[in-house]
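Newbie here. two chains, one complex. Structure please?
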Amino acid sequence: MRGRNIKKAAYPYILWTALFVIAPMFLVMANAFSAADGSFTTANFARAFEPIYLAVMWRSVELAAVCTAICLLLGYPAAYFIARLRLKSRGALLFLVIVPMWMNFLLRTYAWLTILEKNGVINSALEFLGLPKLNLLYNSGAVVLGMVYNFLPFMILPLYTVLEKTDGTLVEAAQDLGASRAGVFFRVTLPLSLPGVLSGVTMVFMPAVTTFVESNLLGGNHFILIGNLIEQQFLTVYDWRFGSALSVILMLIILISMGAAELAGGAGEET
Amino acid sequence: MSGGRVSSILKRVYVGLILLFLYAPIIVLIVFSFNASRSRGRWGGFTLSWYAEMFRDRQIMGALWNTVAIAVLSAALAGILGTASAIGINAMKKIPRKIMLTANNLPVLNPDIVTGVSLMILFIFVFNTLRAGSLGFLTMLLAHVAFNAPYVILSVLPKLSGLDPNMYEAALDLGCRPAPAFFKVILPEISQGIISGVVLAFTLSIDDFVISFFTKGPGFSNLSIIVYSMARRGVNPKINAVSTLIFVTVMLLLALVNKLNGEKLKS
């Protein structure tokens, strides 16, 4: 009896979840599959696969993939080196990697505006040195830079967690058996760290593919990603049905990449 | 031997460069909030005038008030709702428990932009059905509780599973009524989980931009929305002052959470 009474404490939250989590999802689905007169249609999805919108989706996935690859290339050595340090300095460095994550990502993105803009820090330095000013803002490079900056800690942390736990005796065994340094890395350390690579890749790719802030602030108004497209449908064009269809597609992209990561992780555990 | 030393120095330089990359923009932001020259590239001497101007700007101050009010209220509501439901979920059998935890993870895993637009559709759907109401303070508050509460549940649940259920039963057997038994026996044991959950909820609320952006109303915005709309028009030193203020606040809160967690580890 008592146990049953305690369970009732969750009832308000069950109602809350139904109202504010489940119901909104149903409304997005309902909008995505309805025509202007309210009848059922798949036209909103068909429209999303028109060449202009396909190009936007492709660009989002492409930029997110480039950003993920750069984060992996920059983050892996950093995580590896930090994991090999003395315990005390490890903790301090890890803390330093985490701190910027707690600053609003909008402000972190805005900070790059100060550095890259026409009269910004870099161009002022160039001017001081007598060099010509550069157009650093409002191109895909600036957008990728902003994304890499925002998401790099999400790559370093899971990599560090795995690399720190790597069994040092396995590395020594490989060295004793005559493996070269590259051999030890590619045949022992790297395979053992794959779960960390996988979760790092997921943690960077997901927010990178859904963002609309970096592209809007650093890419200018002409630089459109799927996030910007959704934002426009809801706040400027007021085409909710198309915006909902795009949201459903975005959720599918996320689900597929999470599924792929899970599969890859499962395959990695078996071998 | 010397090769090893060179490579160890190179490793340190590499980690140093990564940290420089992570911190340079934040430092630039903070330094230029004290810059007297409006042109960003040049240092025109130390000034606090951007802070003074920020405090005189009614739009910014209104948005600051909204941000704090929403953060405090949403954290408090999420704290009550999340703690109650964590207690309920903890008492559930395996399958309903699993269903609740999956539903609870949905707002955590869903992209912010999808959470934002789905809540916006819900609110406007309700307003259209009622033929009354508009987006504003209430909708943003509800949206913040919706994405905050799951984090409170996630931080209270581990405390509850470590709790001895016989303690509560014993209190009841000794004639204590359920409500005082809860406040005297269960609450002190899980209070640290609740506090860190509530502080996390507060921090997430202050930090949020995307979900607020879609649930804001005409004439009602918070600080991050103001920063976004100002930043779209270019750099403005007032934003640097606002950013520095937010950064320092979040850092202080983080230190507080860290201290609480550290004390918990010691005890």
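Moderator note: Chain B has a mean pLDDT of 85. The longest helix of chain B spans residues 58-90. Thread marked as resolved.
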